[in-house]
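Protocol step 4 of 6: structure prediction from sequence.
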Amino acid sequence: MSRIVRCGLIQARNVLDSGHSLAAIKKAMIDKHLKLIEQAARKKVKILCLQELFYGPYFCAEQNIRWYELTERVPDGPTIKLMQKVAAKHRMVIVVPVYEEEMAGLYFNTAAVIDADGRYLGKYRKHHIPHVHPGFWEKFYFTPGDLGYTVFETKYARVGVYICYDRHFPEGARVLGLNGAEIVFNPSATVAGLSEYLWELEQPAHAVANGYFVGAINRVGTEKPWSIGEFYGKSYFCNPRGKIMAQASRDKDEVVVADLDLDMIQEVRRVWQFFRDRRPETYAPLTTQTGRTAAAD
């Protein structure tokens, strides 16, 4: 009998621009997401992932200490506590990306994983922090993640998380596979003209290389007053063969739903024996900065 798990992704437009108070901005986005989560529940979604920094705009478009006030403790902050109640109510696993404060002045781009009974299972902290393009000033806000590539044993599946820019790095995607991930979620915030041509290439490639499902989420709309471009949505699920199974539009709030047959993972891995045929003893250059070895010098 197949292990089929109905999963969902939420992509959404920011509600209030940066001229409003942070409390109002945050409340508006949380209220919007609560309605979208209800919609997912009506569709009988069992595992749901929200977009990167879901309760506000993508504030990394500027460098302003004001946005530090959006941080919360994880899991003891109000948003995670609220989502624990929501998860338990709907018997739904929820991946909740927030701006985390570990201590004063030490902040992370984090996703909390909450099980279907409301238990907090742990968190993933974004490893790779971009500072490479006008409007993506993330090193001003985030410390690189320090918790490894954890796979969370939820009620319905083994779930891994990668966040946005992480998706450009195949090494962590491989570790998630080696750690037993069946589904890897990548909550993101990315704009047209920068990465759209990669959006449907890299993550299906991760799915194929590692034999797991991927759920890729991107927000939608243009966020004022910044002009870094349009968040183009197009959130999707792809299977271990790299085929996109379900995909959202580029400009609408949407709940993307797909039934993932987890037995496909074994089917695919029995054909493509990538884990068997790996040669980890030859990969030492991956752990050096330049990839050069003494022999090469």
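Step 5 (inspection) to follow. The mean pLDDT is 95.
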